């Protein structure tokens, strides 16, 4: 509510040495130690982790010199006008002096406030390519589902992620088909003549009725899918009850009635 930089300002007292800020909707396996080392080698005040991206029109594009010093930004440039394929990941390394560029008790953003000020001041401001690291901003439903597919396909590894396959104690009805990458949680109950096609995630204690179809979806813990429900390209929230004979196609439902 205070902006990306304004939210960090009240924590100033805790940062007396080099520190890292990572956006809460970033999914990444980037080597943060290497990023910090790059930052310190250049005596930087601020360093941004950068990823090469083919489609950059939805991101902040960064232009650097040969040593990685940032010289310019483009915010969501239309296709064909981008001056770089380097994308700002929202992974930052800062020195405590960065707080001199963030006003107190003010809505303030790194991208719109702090970084332009660093460029204007000629401060030590750098960007480092994160190489082959995985990175995705999962701040939209489409990106969240895409990241889930990446995890299931093994394109990125998450510590503690549930393995594909059938857990012990799973209760399956007759004529159940499970196709593709479909990790199922503990305590799941599946009715008769159900088809579940991946990439799909079924959380713990989910109840799936008879004649249900689930394709390319995420069903969170304790949800219930009534008989003859179809869930396709959708997200069902925690403890959500989907009534029988309902179709959810490209939908998100969570603790609110389904629109009819």
Write out key terms for the chains shown.
260 residues, elongated, 5-stranded parallel beta sheet, alpha/beta, 4 helices
Describe this structure in words.
There is one protein chain. The protein has 260 residues and is of the alpha/beta class. The chain is built from 4 helices and 22 strands. The protein has helices at residues 3-6, 32-41, 110-121, 141-152, and strands at 19-22, 26-28, 46-52, 60-64, 70-75, 86-94, 125-129, 135-137, 171-172, 177-179, 189-190, 195-197, 201-202, 207-208, 213-215, 218-219, 224-225, 230-232, 235-236, 241-242, 247-249, 252-253. The strands form 6 sheets. The chain has a 5-stranded parallel β-sheet with strand order 9-11-14-17-20, with no helix packed on it. The longest helix has 12 residues, at 110-121.
Q: What kind of oligomer do you see?
A: single chain
Structural class: alpha/beta
Distance between the termini: 33 Å
Q: Flag low-confidence runs.
A: none
* Largest sheet, strands/sense/barrel: 5 strands, parallel
- Percent strand equals 25-35%
Name the average pLDDT. 91
Percentage of helical residues? 10-25%
Layout of strands and helices, then pairs:
Elements: H1 3-6, E1 19-22, E2 26-28, H2 32-41, E3 46-52, E4 60-64, E5 70-75, E6 86-94, H3 110-121, E7 125-129, E8 135-137, H4 141-152, E9 171-172, E10 177-179, E11 189-190, E12 195-197, E13 201-202, E14 207-208, E15 213-215, E16 218-219, E17 224-225, E18 230-232, E19 235-236, E20 241-242, E21 247-249, E22 252-253
Parallel strand pairs: 3-7, 9-11, 10-12, 11-14, 12-15, 13-16, 14-17, 15-18, 16-19, 17-20, 18-21, 19-22
Antiparallel strand pairs: 1-6, 2-8, 3-6, 4-5
């Amino acid at each position: 509510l205070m902006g990306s930089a304004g939210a960090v300002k009240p924590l100033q007292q805790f940062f007396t040495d080099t520190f890292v800020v990572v956006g809460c909707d970033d999914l990444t396996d980037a080597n943060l130690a290497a990023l910090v080392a790059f930052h310190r080698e250049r005596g930087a005040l601020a360093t941004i982790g950068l990823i090469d991206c083919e489609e950059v029109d939805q991101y902040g594009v960064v232009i650097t010199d040969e040593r990685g010093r940032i010289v310019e930004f483009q915010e969501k440039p239309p296709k064909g006008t981008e001056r770089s394929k380097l994308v700002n990941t929202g992974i930052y390394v800062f020195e405590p002096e960065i707080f001199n560029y963030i006003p107190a008790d003010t809505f303030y953003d790194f991208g719109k406030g702090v970084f332009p000020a660093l460029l204007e001041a000629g401060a030590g401001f750098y960007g480092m390519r994160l190489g082959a690291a995985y990175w995705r901003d999962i701040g939209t439903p489409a990106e969240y589902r895409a990241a889930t597919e990446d995890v299931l396909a093994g394109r990125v590894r998450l510590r503690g992620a549930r393995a594909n396959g059938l857990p012990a104690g799973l209760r399956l009805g007759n004529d159940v088909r499970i196709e593709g990458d479909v990790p199922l949680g503990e305590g799941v109950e599946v009715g008769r003549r159900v088809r579940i096609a991946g990439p799909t995630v079924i959380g713990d204690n989910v109840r799936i009725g008879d004649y249900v179809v689930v394709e390319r979806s995420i069903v969170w813990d304790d949800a219930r899918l009534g008989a003859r429900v179809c869930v396709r390209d959708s997200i069902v929230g925690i403890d959500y009850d989907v009534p029988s004979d309902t179709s959810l196609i490209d939908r998100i439902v969570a603790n609110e009635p389904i629109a009819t």
